[in-house]
Amino acid sequence: MDYEYIRHGVVNIFMANEPLRGKRFVEATEYKTKKDWAVFIKRIADEQYPEAKKITLVMDNFKTHAASAFYETFEPEEAKKLWDRFEFIYTPKHGSWLNMAEIELHVLNGQCLNRHISKMTTIQEEVGAWQSNRNNKNAKINWQFTTKDARVKLKRLYPSIHD
After folding, report:
1. Contact between 73 and 57 (Cβ < 8 Å)
2. What is the pLDDT of residues 88-123, one digit of tens each?
3. Could you write out the DSSP letters of every residue in 115-132?
4. Which residues of 57-72 are buried (b: 16+ CB within 10 A; e: fewer)?
5. Structural domain of residue 146, as residue ranges?
6. 88 burial level (CB within 10 Å; 0-12, 13-18, 19+)
7. Has residue 3 got a pLDDT over 80?
8. Is residue 7 part of a domain?
9. Distance in angstroms (rounded) separating the CA atoms of residues 148 and 136
10. 127: which residues sit within 8 A by CB, 6+ positions away?
C-alpha cells in the first residue's frame, strides 16, 4: 500500500491569552505577515483593553513581532501610540514553552484543528466557537513554573557573581 500526501494549504493562528482571567483571543489568518500581526495587536488594544494605559504582552521572538510592523501598517502617529501602549516581553529564543499562549495553541489544535478543514471561513467559525466556549468556561492555566525553577532551568541565562 502506498499513499500520497497532498497539502491543501496552511492557516496562521494568532493567540493571545490572559491566563489569570481564563480568557483568550484567537484569530485565524491566511498569512503571518507583519501587517496581520499589527492588526491583531491593534484589535487586542482597541477591543479587549480600550481603557488600558499599558498592556503587557509576553511573546516569542518571531520576525513579524517588531515596531516596524506598526509603522508599515498604520500612520506614524497611530503606530507610535499603539507601540507605546504595550510592554513587550520576549521569551528566550528556545523558550517557547515559557509562552502560555503555546499551551492554549496546543489545546486549540487538540480540540478543534486536529483534522483537515478545507475552507478558511469554516476554520474561522470553528476557532471563534472554540474561543467562546473556552472563555465561557474561564479555563485558566495553572502555571507552576516558579522563579526558583527558572533559576535552575535557565541558569545559563542568569549572570553569576560567584564565578
Report:
1. no
2. 988 877 665 566 788 888 889 999 888 888 899 999
3. S----HHHHHHHHHHHHH
4. ebbeeeeebbeebbbe
5. 12-157
6. middle
7. no
8. no
9. 33
10. 13, 26, 27, 28, 108, 112, 113
**Domain count across the chain:** 1
Total-model pTM: 0.79
Indicate whether 1 belongs to any domain.
Answer: no
The residue-averaged pLDDT of 44-69 equals 90
Q: Report whether 123 contacts 109 (CB < 8 A).
A: no
Cβ atoms within 10 A of the Cβ of 37, count? 24
Report which residue type is found at 113.
L
How many whole angstroms separate alpha carbon 65 and alpha carbon 91? 12
Q: Which cell numbers in the block locate residue 94?
A: 528556545
